[in-house]
């Protein structure tokens, strides 16, 4: 049974709204505490105090974490608007004479991070030493509306409509195997007879999975991985054949392209942001830098 609070006279502060927003985004006491840089007991006491002052529940507690009520979502929306206005004010202050600064959170896959971004980011941070980067490697698209990240760099043919962004180019892929693996055979066998390295069910909709099931329906992969980067590593170390992006293996003398580039495996690379943060100076600088320096077709 939900507790009933007696409503008392209170004035909401920005700290209160910031607390609600942190718990909405963090989805747990620990997640909110990490965002606010306090301990979990402080978050627990603060949200209980705020609910008591308001006389309303702001969150439903469940096994899935803290789920905002209708009022909780409304207060979080107000907090996001204030946060956005603060960003705009700070951005205006920086433009008036200060150097670009602040934290820029970038989310992408480990494949794109290691194969495309890592070679470029040292030049970006050298050009803008006041900007600190937080790099989040995950296959899941972060919720940019809840500020899980500022910028997402993703391989997709259809970016979400509620985000704004720039197409950075086309990513091509091919079928590879290492020279050490191929030396096990007197002659290169057909693809169907090779040991296959493929993505697991967590990425069942990936273009490489769909292509393999259509082109090689009888193949049962010997190895399964949860990232394209892991597949590439398995290929390089001679475990079998697999699909890998050209940007990772095209200049690697230890591997051989068996087929490709495969048109069905082509996808676009997008840099995406929420409309509320696209105007921020550090976000715009990254957009411009990536468009000028990332070499894709």
UniProtKB/TrEMBL annotation:
Domain HTH lysR-type: from-to ranges: 12-69
Signal peptide segment: none
A Pfam family per the record: HTH_1
Transmembrane residue ranges: 228-249
Parts forming coiled coils: none
Keywords linked to the UniProt accession: DNA-binding, Membrane, Transcription, Transcription regulation, Transmembrane, Transmembrane helix
PROSITE patterns on file: HTH_LYSR
Xref: SUPFAM superfamilies: Periplasmic binding protein-like II, Winged helix' DNA-binding domain
Keyword Transmembrane helix attributed: yes
Family, as annotated: Belongs to the LysR transcriptional regulatory family.
Protein name: LysR family transcriptional regulator
Organism: Noviherbaspirillum album
């Amino acid at each position: 049974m939900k507790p009933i609070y007696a409503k008392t006279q209170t004035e909401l502060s920005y700290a209160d709204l910031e607390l609600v927003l942190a718990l909405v985004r963090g989805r747990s006491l620990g997640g909110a505490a990490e965002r606010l840089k306090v301990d979990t007991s402080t978050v627990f006491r603060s949200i209980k105090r705020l609910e008591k002052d308001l006389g309303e529940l702001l969150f439903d507690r469940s096994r899935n974490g803290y789920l905002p009520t209708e009022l909780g979502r409304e207060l979080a929306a107000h907090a996001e608007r204030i946060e956005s206005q603060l960003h705009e004010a700070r951005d205006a202050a920086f433009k008036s004479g200060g150097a670009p600064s602040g934290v820029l959170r970038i989310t992408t896959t480990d494949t794109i991070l290691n194969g495309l971004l890592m070679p470029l980011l040292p030049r970006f941070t050298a050009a803008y030493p006041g900007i600190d980067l937080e790099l989040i490697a995950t296959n899941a698209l972060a919720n940019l509306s809840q500020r899980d990240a500022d910028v997402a760099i993703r391989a997709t043919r259809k970016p979400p409509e509620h985000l704004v962004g720039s197409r950075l180019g086309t990513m091509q892929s091919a079928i590879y195997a290492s020279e050490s693996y191929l030396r096990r055979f007197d002659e290169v066998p057909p693809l169907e007879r090779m040991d296959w390295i493929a993505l697991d069910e967590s990425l069942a909709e990936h273009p490489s999975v769909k292509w393999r099931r259509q082109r090689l329906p009888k193949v049962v992969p010997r190895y399964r991985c949860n990232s394209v980067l892991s597949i590439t590593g398995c290929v390089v170390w001679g475990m079998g054949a697999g699909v890998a992006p050209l940007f990772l293996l095209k200049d690697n003398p230890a591997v051989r392209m068996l087929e490709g580039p495969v048109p069905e495996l082509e996808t676009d690379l997008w840099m995406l942001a929420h409309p509320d943060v696209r105007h921020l100076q550090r976000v715009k600088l990254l957009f411009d830098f990536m468009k000028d320096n990332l070499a894709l077709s």
